[in-house]
Write a structure and sequence with these properties.
This protein has 10 helices and no strands. The chain is an all-alpha fold and 243 residues long.
Length: 243
C-alpha cells in the first residue's frame, strides 16, 4: 500500500474540515472540555472535597480517550461512506493506508489539543504536562486502532454508536469504579486506561514513569496496541473500507 506525504497532507486538511462540520463530532469535542469546566467549578479545591488532586484531570481525559477515537473517528469514516466520498477517494488512487493514517493523525492531533485544554482548565502544575502528553498519547494508540475497526464495520453514522458503545464502556467505566466491586476491579486491571491512570497518579506523586513498578502498566498498554493492530488487519482483510 502506498503512503505519499503530499496526499496524506491533503487528506488531513479535509479531515479537519470534516471534524468541525459534523455536529456529532463537535459535541464529542466539547464534552470533555465542558465537563472539565463544570467539575472544576463544582469541586473547586479537590483537596477540600476529599479527592485526589488530579481527579478532574484524569476523569475528563478518560472521557476524551474513550469518546473521540472510538466514536469520533468511526463516525468520520461512516459519514464518508454515506456520502460516497470514500468510494471517490479510493477511485482517485488514494490508498487505504493513506486514508486511515490521515484519520488517525487528525483525530490524534485533536485529542492532544483537548488534552492540553483540559490540563490548563484543571490548573495542573505545568511541569507534569510532557509526562501527561506522553502517557496519554501512547495509551490512545490502541483506542485509535479500535476506532478504525469500528469505522470499518459501520455502514452509517447510526451504527457507529451501537458498535463503539461497548468499547467506550470497557475503557471508561472500570477505571472509574474499580474499587467498588471485585469483578470490576479485575476487569479494570487489564484495561489500558486504568494502567494509564496508575502511571499518571504515581508520576504526580513523585515516582518516575520509567520505574520498574510501571513495567506491567506499559506492558498491558502495549498488548492492547498489538491487539488493535491485529484486529484492524484482520477486519480490513475481511471487509476493506469501501464495503
Amino acid at each position: 500500500m502506498k503512503l505519499r506525504m503530499h496526499t496524506l497532507a491533503v487528506l488531513i486538511k479535509k479531515d479537519f474540515r470534516l471534524m468541525f462540520t459534523n455536529k456529532n463530532m463537535l459535541i464529542m469535542i466539547l464534552l470533555p472540555i465542558g465537563f472539565a469546566v463544570l467539575y472544576q467549578t463544582i469541586f473547586g479545591d479537590v483537596k477540600e472535597a476529599g479527592m485526589p488532586r488530579n481527579f478532574v484531570l484524569t476523569l475528563c481525559e478518560l472521557l476524551n480517550l474513550s469518546a473521540i477515537p472510538l466514536t469520533g473517528l468511526a463516525m468520520m469514516v461512516a459519514e464518508e461512506k454515506e456520502k460516497n466520498t470514500l468510494r471517490v477517494l479510493m477511485l482517485s488512487d488514494v490508498s487505504a493506508l493513506e486514508y486511515i493514517f490521515s484519520k488517525i493523525i487528525s483525530v490524534l492531533v485533536l485529542m492532544e489539543f483537548i488534552t492540553i485544554v483540559i490540563f490548563f482548565i484543571t490548573a495542573t502544575q505545568l511541569s507534569y504536562l510532557p509526562m501527561f502528553l506522553l502517557v496519554t498519547t501512547v495509551t490512545s494508540i490502541s483506542m485509535l486502532l479500535f476506532g478504525s475497526v469500528v469505522g470499518l464495520l459501520s455502514k452509517d453514522q447510526m451504527s457507529t454508536s451501537t458498535l463503539s458503545t461497548p468499547l467506550m464502556i470497557l475503557f471508561l467505566i472500570p477505571p472509574m469504579f474499580q474499587n467498588m466491586n471485585e469483578v470490576i476491579d479485575k476487569i479494570a486491571s487489564i484495561v489500558p486506561t486504568t494502567r494509564m491512570m496508575a502511571i499518571i497518579n504515581d508520576a504526580m506523586n513523585g515516582m518516575s514513569i520509567l520505574s520498574q513498578e510501571h513495567l506491567l502498566d506499559f506492558g498491558i498498554i502495549l498488548v492492547w496496541i498489538l491487539l488493535g493492530v491485529v484486529t484492524f488487519a484482520m477486519m480490513y482483510r475481511r471487509k476493506g473500507f469501501d464495503n
